[in-house]
Amino acid sequence: MPTTPFKDFKWSDESVESWQEIWSGLWRLGMVWEWQRGDAYGRRLGRDGRQWTVFTAVENNWYHGDLDDVAPLPSLAVVKELLRWTDTLIYSVNEGSDKEHLVKQTIALIEDWLDKHGAVNTTAPLL
To answer: I want to staple 23 with a disulfide (CB 3.0 to 4.6 A). Which of 55, 71, 87, 114 is the partner?
Structure first.
């Protein structure tokens, strides 16, 4: 019987980097992240500024404003929910508007991100 490979999702430098543009679009569309203890976020570290380090949020982070300029790094399940949320926005924007363009762009970015980074089983559907 052939085996089917699975793996757990882990944030990588590449997945965090490409997530930044998605988060920017979601934020401009009105997404508000409610920080909780244990949420992941990334910060650029290293001499060249291209390496990301993933941290876990604790209460002190939001009390001191440490999370003001970072993007949350949600689980794959939440990324898929964010895609569904963004997809529903298309029905509430004016056709041809800048907001419609942003919604469509953000949907495409999330779908591409999931195709590239979100597959834990290369034979299973993503949604």
So the answer is: 71
Sign of CA dihedral 50, 55, 61, 62: positive
Angle between the N-to-C axes of helices 13-28 and 98-117, in degrees from 0 to 180, rounded to the nearest 10: 160
- Cα distances from 43 to residues 11, 17, 21, 28, in angstroms, run 12, 10, 15, 21
Tell me how far apart the alpha carbons of residues 53 and 43 are, in angstroms, rounded to a whole number.
6
Whole-number pLDDT of residue 64: 73
pTM given for the model: 0.82
Model confidence band, residue 120 (pLDDT cutoffs 50, 70, 90): low
Whole-angstrom distance, CA of residue 37 vs CA of residue 62? 10
Tokens in use for 59? 């209460």
